[in-house]
Amino acid sequence: MFLWLKIIGLNDAKKLVTNRCLEKLIILAPGYALSANPENPSPYIRISYSIATPEEVDRGILLLAEAIREELLE
Question: How much is the pTM?
Answer without folding.
Answer: 0.87
